[in-house]
Amino acid sequence: MGSVPVGVRNDAARPVAKRTTSPYRAGRAGAWLKIRHADTVEATVAGFTGTARQPRALAVRLPDGRIALSQRLTTALATRIASHLVPQPERAYTQGGDAYTPVSGEIVVEVVAGTTRHAVVTVVRLR
Predict the structure, then answer these.
(1) Is the separation of the CB atoms in 125 and 77 below 8 Å?
(2) DSSP assignment, residue 59?
(3) Alpha carbon distance, N-terminus to C-terminus of the chain
(4) Which letter does DSSP use for residue 8 in this model?
């Protein structure tokens, strides 16, 4: 919404907002947007899916110690990260059972770890 003034309500299960120029309409209306909370944190890369030249997603070690697969990487981000990946020959698995190729070395990425019911991890940038 940028710098557009918004009205905010926090009486719902999750805060919602709408432009102040939008009229209030009772009931379900398209003007209200749910606000989702997400924290940006640093995570170490434990591995990847796809190939080392074209990684699809990263297995990242979050600050709480668990390893989670990220959302699919953008092409630009995958290209930047690929040059840092040194794959190991074995396979590894997240706590959820997802397979990935482990890497050696210390690669740090910034991720957005959502606090929704299904913890979604999105890689934002290489550190």
Answers:
(1) yes
(2) E
(3) 28
(4) E
The backbone torsions φ and ψ at residue 42, rounded to the nearest 5 degrees and listed phi first, read -90, 140
Structure-block tokens of residue 32: 């209200």
- Whole-model pTM: value is 0.70
Write down how long the chain is. Answer: 127
* Residue located via tokens 């929704």: 116
Q: Give CA angle at 119 (39, 77), nearest 5°.
A: 70
- Coil, helix or strand at residue 98: coil
DSSP 1-35: -TT--EEEE-SSSS-EEEETTSPP-SSS-TT-EEP
CA 87 – CA 93 distance, rounded (Å): 14
Section 64-79 average pLDDT: 94
